[in-house]
Structures are given as C-alpha cells and as structure tokens.
Specification:
The complex is a heterodimer of chains A (399) and B (291). By secondary structure, chain A is α/β, with parallel strands linked by helices. Chain A has two domains: 3-113, no CATH class; 171-185 and 225-397, von Willebrand factor, type A domain (Rossmann fold), CATH 3.40.50. Chain A contains 19 helices and six strands. In chain B, a hairpin with a 3-residue loop joins strand 6 and strand 7. In chain B, helix 1 packs across helix 2 (21-33), helix 10 (196-206) packs across helix 11 and helix 11 packs across helix 15 (280-290). Chain B is built from 15 helices and nine strands. The chains are: A alpha/beta (399), B alpha/beta (291). Chains A and B meet through helix 3, helix 4, helix 5, helix 11 and helix 15 of A and helix 2, helix 5, helix 6, helix 9 and strand 9 of B.
Chain lengths: 399, 291
C-alpha cells in the first residue's frame, strides 16, 4: 500500500492500519539504533496528518529531520525509509518487522550495522568455550586467555600464572583507577582558592546588614577535571599486558568524568562506548569482538594519524593528558610516528608513554618507533607491575 | 502564521540563501511540531547562515548566543545589575531590609541576556544557539529545561513565562558529543558541503561580479581541492573569500591565470601543512581538470 493511499484512506480501519504501520517503522528504526521514543511517534503521526504523506519525498524528508539524531542516522535513513515504505514487498516486510525480526529482511540487513547484536553473539561464543580461545585471534581475545597470573604488586604482569591471582590483579588495577580520580579531584579543590567576589551572593547575604558588605562571598573556580585519553596498543607483542590494562581502562572510564579510550593495532578503534558497560567481563567480551582481525603488527604512526585526524578535535582539549600504552615496536613507518607525535604534542597538555618493557632487565629504548617518539613524550615510564601504575598517580595529580 | 514548504523555499531564495532542498521541510516542521532545529556539519558549511536566512524568512529578529566553555546562566540568561543595586542600597539607608529587597530585586534591576531576551520579544524571534557543543554539559541540561518549558525561574523574582516562543536553531561542530536527551528534543539536519552547482549559485548570489563561468570554475576547483588530503578542508566562507579575491584581481577565467590562482590559494588553505601539500604542480593539475 502506498503512502498516498494511507494519507487519504478514510475510516477507523485505515487509521488503525496507518498507526500500526508507523509503529512497525519506528520499531525498525529502533532496531537500527535510532533513539526514537513515544513523542517522536506522536509527532510522526502529526506529520502524516499534516499532509506530508501525499508525496513520498516530502514524507521522507520530514521523517528524516524528526527521527534522526546524529550523522550516522542521517546517512542510513534514506535506505531504511525506502526499503520500508517504498519496497516491492512492503506488506510482507512490515509483517516481519512486526515479529521484531527485521534483521531477516535481506535488503534491510545489508543496510544496518549492528555492533551491539554482534557483541551479544561474540559473548555467547566465548561463553560456550572459554578455555579454547583461538590462537589466530590477537589483541584482546588472546590476552584474556594468556595473561594468567599471580597478584602481588611487584610481580610482572607477564609472570602471573594463576587465574585467581590475575583476577585479583585486574581488580587492583580497576581500584587504582578509581583511587586516582578521587585524589585528583580533592587536590584540585584544596589547591585552588576562589578569586573575585561573587557579587550576586554577596549582595544577597548582606541585604539584611543594610547593604554594608560584612560577609563576602568569593567566586569559586569551577573544578575542571583532567581529561584522560588512553591509547592502548593491542598488538600481538603486547598481548601479555593488554588484559590488565583493559581492566585499568575500564576502571578509568567508569570513574573519571572525562575519559576516552582507544585501542590500536594495525588500525584504530574507539572503544569508550563498549567499555562503559558496567560489568567488566561483559565489556571485555564486547571488546573481544571489536578487536577481531587484529594482526600481529602494530602501525602506531598510522593509528596516531587516524587519531589526530578523526578523533583529536573531539576528544582533546587543553586539559587533556594522552596516555599511550605500547611497547613501541612499530612495524609501519617510524618517521610517520615522529610526525604524528609532534602533531599530538602540540594539541594536548601532556603525553605519557607507558611501556611495560622498561621494567625488563637490560632494556634500552632501541626500537625505531620509540626512538622517533621519545622527543615528544613528557613522561616515559614503566608499567609492568601494579606498583609502577600506582607511581603514576602523583604525576597526573600535578598536572 | 504558518508557512508552507513552497513559500519557505521561495522566501529563502528571496533572502539570497541558496538552500538545500530539504531545508525548507525542516523549517516547516519547526513550525508544525514546535521543536528546535539542530544543525550539524563541518566548520564552514554555512550552519550559522541558516539561522540568518530563517530570520529573513520570518521577517524577524535574530538573537544569537555564542557558546563557549564556561558559559553560565549569568552570561546566557540574566544577570542582576549590581552597580545599580548597590546604589539603591546606599540611597535607601534606614529603610527596612525587606523593603530594600523588594526594590532591588525588581525587573528594573534585571539585565536581559540572549536567552531571556528571546522569550520576552513581542514577536517570535529566531534564537541561534551557536556551537552548543562548546558549552559545558551543565549548560546543556539547563538548556534542555528552557527549551521544553520556555519559562525561566528567577529565584528572587518568580517565574517569567515566554511572551512568544522563539524559533530555536542550535549548531554543533561535534567537538563534544551532545547528550541524547538534547538530540531527541530537536529536529536534526546535517549540513553538508554544497555540490558544485549549488556552490556556483551561492558564489553568484553573494558576489554578482563573478559571473556564471567563473563561479562554476571556482566551485569545481574548490570541490577538487576538498578531495585532496587536507587537514583543514575549505568551507563555503573560504570559497567566497577566494571568489572575492579573484574578482578583485580582475580574473575572468581561472585557466588564463594559473599564477594568480596559485598565489591566491591562501584564501582556501589555512595551515602550513596544507600549503605544502598543494604545490604549484598540484594546482595546475587541478586546473586542467576544471577547465
């Protein structure tokens, strides 16, 4: 049935049909991660009632403005709209989506990206066989399987072997992240005095003194939390450490008001959303899926380039500390890494590079990547034990 | 006064704004559903211009609130006129405190800031909340409240209801992710770089001296430059600057004046890296493409 027939078909039956159809369309959108609520449904009905349904193009444009809330919605809306309202077998399709299975429609399936759904599948995959993590899966997948350990503060993460103790280490990492935030905030408050007078409050307080300013109220500086952006190397060479750092990141994202996390190996992935899952284990499962396809190599330079291009303007402001966790084994172009580090250094307040290998005996920064990046780092520190992580906190607090 | 889409498109054209065809729909929906319009897009695609054109369409005033980090209620909504309040307090020595309080917290001592001014106009104005992503999250949630009720409560004075509901336009550059609540309350329109044809018409409308041939060449050239690997992609404002520069230098045809084209690239390329990426050879290659 065409949009035209809907708009002009009279009677209760037609009205009910329109309402049902509209509801089905909104459900399809919701399945495609559109933020569509009841109010949007009512407004969509008003749009139809206002005569927009007479021409499909007008209806599409109107719905597009109403129902999209971000660029990604904007880009895929036309395809969804056309498939739903103008497709050949509209009727059967809407019946399928009534059964809440829009993913079965081939034409819709190709249109939608469904990270959350895939995440769920990945989670079940892992639950069914937790012991046999496939070896060809680098990054997070392998790290979970490999980094079993023992939980003392000074034990190198890669030497931890007992599953119970690595769990303990993970918990400590998460707690550490939490503690950092609390202390950072408190110091901020203690150090900074208020500046000018807060005239409005002062007048208020002193009206009863006949306008003589007896007690003064000072303007307080608004606490501005430090923003922490963590770039974690999830390549094969780092796999023994990624598990612990992911827990650390999870704690940081959970506790800091402003923090972002990105993961890189041969390419860069923004993982803040996946990591904001409250339950750490589930967050890691979602991540395992995102890290799939990670090869053995690390293209730090290219990943940083992507970061500088597409993420930096959104993620970085003047009170941002960028924390890069990597061993610096660059398989790409080391010169590019130098250039991109310079660009990054211009934008943010501090760059902290954590390298688990510094803690190894006889280590010297010989890797090409590290050599190129070294001039732009504000701090180059070890991060192979919980103690070394904890040692960072005073530094961050001083920023 | 509700305008149809056709009327809106006509008036936009009349105001010299060469609109994306969908924009008229967005404006019609703003009236129909009484929702604000959120415009997103790269810097320099003309988001702010939309609000100006909207004011033209409705023949009304444009009130602009530029957001920045740390923007608070006293800069956005209202502020008491402290100097006058202090004077009044000094002048009325000896009166009862309550009496003084009534006096100095009256509308006479209130300074309107853009948001309060917007809801107190006799005719609905266009309220442009520019670069809302630069403001703090606290301000965003405060804005949410204002946009749903269109009333302001001032503790000392009581609630001030809107005299007219303004047409609200918000713009964002995505330097920070806006909250879902704010996004849901708004109609959404993504402003993209105009296509060659539309950009040529924009150049012609703004710089009549440019002429049809030159405008089209400029638009094609800029489109080609946007496809190059640049850090700061030139926006429509840069195109207009460039067109004005070329017209000022008496260029009639880009192909005849490759030297001038290359030397005036500074209107389009705003960083040193970008300048290095567009050497003479690249400019000439693009020029051949354009001709």
């Amino acid at each position: 049935m065409s949009a035209r027939a809907m708009a002009f078909g009279g009677g209760d039956a037609a009205a009910r049909l329109i309402a049902e159809k509209l509801a089905a369309f909104l459900r399809t959108l919701r399945d495609n991660h559109f933020a569509v609520g009841l109010r949007e449904g009512q407004d969509a009905a008003r749009i139809i009632a206002a005569g927009y349904a007479a021409r499909p193009n007008a209806l599409r444009a109107a719905f597009k403005h109403l129902l999209c809330t971000r660029k990604s919605d904007w880009d895929k809306f036309d395809g969804l709209f056309d498939a739903f309202w103008l497709g050949q077998r509209v009727r059967s399709r809407s019946m399928i989506s009534n059964a809440a299975q829009p993913a079965n429609i081939p034409s819709l399936k190709t249109l939608q990206e469904k990270p959350a759904d895939e995440g769920r599948q990945a989670a079940t995959d892992q639950l069914s066989g937790p012991g046999d993590a496939p070896d060809n899966r680098a990054g997070e997948g392998r790290a979970e399987g490999a980094s079993k350990a023992e939980g003392l503060d000074d034990v190198d993460f890669r030497k931890m072997t007992d599953p119970a103790q690595i769990e303990q280490a993970h918990a400590v990492a998460a707690r550490l992240a939490r503690a950092m935030r609390t202390r950072l905030t408190r110091r901020d408050l203690a150090r900074r005095r208020g500046r000018g007078l807060h005239l409005r409050r002062t007048i208020h307080r002193n009206v009863s003194h006949g306008g003589a300013f007896i007690s003064l109220v000072k303007r307080r500086r608004k606490p501005r939390p430090l923003r922490l952006v963590i770039l974690l190397d999830a390549s094969g060479s780092m796999s023994l450490y990624t598990g612990v750092f992911l827990r650390f990141i999870h704690g940081v994202l959970d506790e800091f008001r402003e923090a972002e996390a990105l993961l890189f190996h041969t390419r860069l992935a923004h993982v803040s959303d996946a990591m904001k899952e409250k339950d750490a284990a589930r967050a890691l499962d979602r991540l395992a899926m995102m890290a799939q396809g990670a090869g053995g190599g690390t293209k730090i330079g290219e990943s940083l380039q992507t970061f500088n291009r597409s993420h930096a303007s959104r993620v970085i402001h003047s009170r941002t500390c960028v924390m890069i966790v990597s061993d610096g084994y660059e398989t790409g172009d080391a010169a590019l890494l130098g250039i991109e580090m310079a660009a990054l250094a211009r934008r943010c307040r501090r760059i902290v590079w954590l390298n688990p290998m510094i803690g190894w005996e006889g280590y010297a920064p010989e890797a090409r990547g590290i050599k190129a990046a070294l001039p732009y780092m504000d701090l180059y520190a070890p991060a192979h034990t919980l103690n070394s992580l904890a040692a960072l906190e005073p530094y961050l607090a001083g920023l | 006064m509700s305008l149809s889409r056709e009327e809106i498109a006509e008036r936009l054209a009349g105001a010299g704004y060469i609109a994306d065809p969908d924009l008229a729909t967005a404006i019609a929906l703003m009236q129909l559903l009484q929702r604000p319009l959120l415009l997103e897009g790269e810097a320099g695609v003309g988001k702010t211009e939309v609000a100006k054109a909207l004011a033209e369409v409705h023949h009304t005033k444009l009130i602009r609130l530029q957001c920045y980090e740390g923007l608070d209620q006293s800069a956005a909504l209202y502020e008491w006129n402290y100097q006058r309040q202090l004077l009044a307090i000094q002048a009325s020595h000896g009166k009862a405190a309550a009496e003084i309080e009534d006096q100095i917290f009256s509308e006479k001592y209130l300074l309107e800031r853009p948001l309060l001014a917007a809801i107190r106009q006799p005719a609905p104005p266009v309220l442009l909340i520019d670069e809302v992503d630069r403001a703090d999250e606290e301000f965003e949630s405060f804005l949410l409240e204002l946009l749903s009720d269109f009333q302001v409560s001032i503790p000392e004075l009581g609630t001030i209801a809107a005299i007219s509901i303004p047409h609200v336009v918000l713009t964002s550059n995505a330097t920070r992710e806006l909250s879902d609540a704010l996004r849901r309350r708004c109609l959404y329109h993504y402003v993209d770089y105009p296509d060659v044809d539309r950009e040529a018409r924009i150049v012609m409308a703004r710089i009549p001296a440019a002429g049809a041939t030159l405008s089209l060449q400029i638009a094609r050239m800029v489109e080609a430059i946007r496809k190059e690997d640049l850090r700061k992609v030139p926006g429509v404002a840069e195109t207009l600057d460039w067109a004005a520069a070329l017209v000022g230098l008496d260029v009639r045809d880009l192909v005849d004046a490759p030297e001038v084209v290359h030397e005036t690239m500074m209107c389009l390329l705003k960083t040193r890296e970008d300048k290095a990426r567009m050497p003479r050879e690249v400019t000439e290659r693009l020029l051949r493409h354009v001709a």
